[in-house]
Specification:
- The chain is mainly beta and about 70 residues long.
- Helices cover about 10% and strands about 30% of the residues.
Length: about 70
């Protein structure tokens, strides 16, 4: 599984942006189009890549204190 990183400037308070990006049902709006995240028993997720048709297991961790999602 490849690593994906994206950043953008959004005219909203940081906590609001973090809260919306941290909603797994809406996470696809914050990622490049190819990967899709399906929650398992958190922090475990399955990542599906359309370009390869493959699923991979991954960990999704949040750090609310630093407003980070990894």
């Amino acid at each position: 599984m490849s690593e994906h990183e994206r950043s953008r400037t959004i005219p909203a308070p940081p906590q609001t942006v973090f809260d919306q990006a941290n909603d797994l049902d809406e996470l696809h709006h914050w990622l490049p189009q190819d990967p899709h995240i399906r929650p398992e028993v958190l922090p475990a997720v399955t990542v599906h890549e359309d370009s390869t048709g493959r699923d991979a297991r991954a960990l999704l961790q949040t750090d609310p204190e630093h407003l980070r999602i990894e």
